[in-house]
Amino acid sequence: MYHSGKVLIVDDDPEIRSVVRILLTSENFEVEEASSSDEALKMLTPEFCLVILDIMLPGLSGYELCQKIREIYNVPILFLSAKSQSSDLLMGYSVGGDDYLCKPFSYPELLARVKGLIRRYEVYQGRNIPVKKAEYLECSGIKLDKRQNSVYKYDEKLNLTDTEYQILKLMMAYPGRLFSIESIYEQVWKEPYMVDARNSVMVFIRKIREKIEDDPRHPEILLTEWGKGYRIV
After folding, report:
1. Among residues 117, 95, 120, 100, which one has the least CA distance to residue 203?
2. Which helix (H) or strand (E) holds 102?
3. End-to-end CA distance of the chain
């Protein structure tokens, strides 16, 4: 049978795992399940194209597991949690998550998030990019290789998540251009902007600065135009 991708579900609630597994397998995804962070870490391999992660887990929390995964893999991570405060959402993004969906969730929304994350990851990894001559974006000592989907700072490779890479690629393609938070969200997330998405974009901008700037508190590459948005110089 053709598989749309291999997904790891990490949740200590067997009913949630079962519901998500049935939904994804009906769309030809290959699904594996873990009930704890320790189990998930033992199962995780580069073959997975998505991790669906609960926050409240036995042992390491979902946040802590996300950080450990980020030390090894750039695989997209979708938090699926009953914790719905904005602080929880921001924490999920700040530790390396790519998206956040609150329980209870609708099946169409979950499928849309899953397919969107995997589609972006496939492009990010270069699996759908034809091998042609190298294409680069460069500015202020930062070099983005569009063919290899890699980012370097003074020839040192940076470890960016999928979402960080997509935002940086968008802005480096138009150096000096001002991007509003709304335009960044709609072009990277590929969905209509919502007011509560503002903080999500701001968190990712902060994470990008931590990786590309010499002093993230006083950025010289990714600048803020207060009340308007951001631009790369």
Report:
1. 95
2. strand 99-102
3. 48
d(CA 220, CA 205): 13
Q: Over the range 100-118, which residues count as b (16 or more CB within 10 Å of their CB) and which as e?
A: bbeeeeeeeebeebbebbb
- Average pLDDT taken over every residue of the chain: 87
* Crossing angle of the two packed helices 62-70 and 86-94, in degrees rounded to 10: 20
- Non-local (6+) Cβ contacts of 76 within 8 A are 49, 50, 51, 98, 99, 117, 118, 120, 121, 161, 162
The residue behind tokens 């802590």 is 64
DSSP 195: G
Nearest by Cα to 4 from 122, 113, 130, 162: 122
In the three-class reduction of DSSP (H, G, I as helix; E, B as strand; rest coil), residue 229 is classed as: strand
Which candidate, 61, 48, 35, 52, places its Cα nearest to that of 4? 48
Which residues does residue 18 pair with via DSSP β-bridges, in sequence order? none
Sign of the four-CA dihedral 193, 194, 195, 200? negative
- Report whether 23 contacts 111 (CB < 8 A): yes
Token pair 């979902």 is at which residue?
62
Predicted local distance difference test score (pLDDT) of residue 173: 85
Q: How far is CA 133 from the centre of its chain?
A: 27
What pTM, to 2 d.p., does this model score? 0.64
- Decide: 209 and 216 in contact? Cβ < 8 Å: yes
